[in-house]
Amino acid sequence: MEIWPIEVCNMMLSKSKQFLCLLLPGHLLSAGSYSFHAVGHERRTSWSRLLDRPNTRLFNDGSVDVSDLGITMDEMNAPLHDEIFQVSSSGSESTSRIPSVNDNGCVWEESPDKIDVKLSIPGLRGQPPAALDLAITKNTATITAFGYGVWSCILRGECVPDSLSFSATDGNDMVPYIEVSLKKAKSGDRWGGFIAQIGEDSIL
């Protein structure tokens, strides 16, 4: 029978992968719709729940019999995998310069290392996808049609321009469907969206 002191059990509840709870800072909450997806287990428990287990035995010295949990001290001391702390988030934003218009034309999903974006900009209706291109700097994006800038935005974070993946295909209602993927300049930075501000030079 394996008996652990109460201090060890407290450490187990705070460190174990099975009782890990991922908390997100408030600044991640931004305008538009969003959702968060935690990788790994998420469970909250309490010391009282541990003591309420049918087979729990509490000894006079404060130690608890936890042999039925099937967890060893070596497992408790093992480092947690990085994947457990990876959180992805997603949401949608408007592509319009008009504050009262929310077309949800920008759908984004970010991970700690990159951000993926799908754009359906109503003002591009009728433009052939083959005529569209995207110019990227570390903090701006500009869509061109036949070589002329027609829509731009300031990014919510800094990216690696050379990592750009871009495609434009036929979408619904003759609105081109644009897909963009970018690596973040600093891994782990949370953008909370893609568009910080629509460019003043946007004609759409």
Descriptive tags:
204 residues; mainly beta; Immunoglobulin-like; 13 strands
Question: What does it look like?
Answer:
This protein has 204 residues and is mainly beta. 10% of the residues lie in helices and 35% in strands. The protein folds into 2 domains: 3-85, no CATH class; 90-198, Immunoglobulin-like. It is built from 3 helices and 13 strands, in the order βαβαββαβββββββββ. It is elongated, with a radius of gyration of 25 Å.
**What is the percent of helical residues?**
under 10%
| CATH fold name of the largest domain | Immunoglobulin-like
Distance between the termini: 72 Å
Low-confidence stretches: 15-31, 38-47
Judging by the overall fold, what is the CATH architecture of the largest domain?
Answer: Sandwich
Structural class based on helices, strands and sheet pairing: mainly beta
In spatial order, strands of the major sheet run 2-5-6-7-12-11
Radius of gyration over C-alpha positions, nearest whole angstrom = 25 Å
Tally of separate helices: 3
Principal-axes shape call: elongated
Which helices and strands occur, and which strands form pairs?
Elements (H helix, E strand, L loop, with lengths): L2 E2 L1 H10 L17 E6 L8 H5 L5 E2 L5 E2 L7 H5 L9 E7 L12 E5 L3 E6 L12 E5 L3 E6 L2 E8 L3 E11 L7 E8 L10 E4 L6
Antiparallel strand pairs: 1-4, 2-5, 3-4, 5-6, 6-7, 7-12, 8-9, 9-10, 10-13, 11-12
Protein name: CS domain-containing protein
InterPro entries: HSP20-like_chaperone (IPR008978)
Organism: Helicotheca tamesis
Can I get a quick summary?
Helix content is 10%, strand content 35%. The protein has 204 residues and is mainly beta. The protein is elongated.
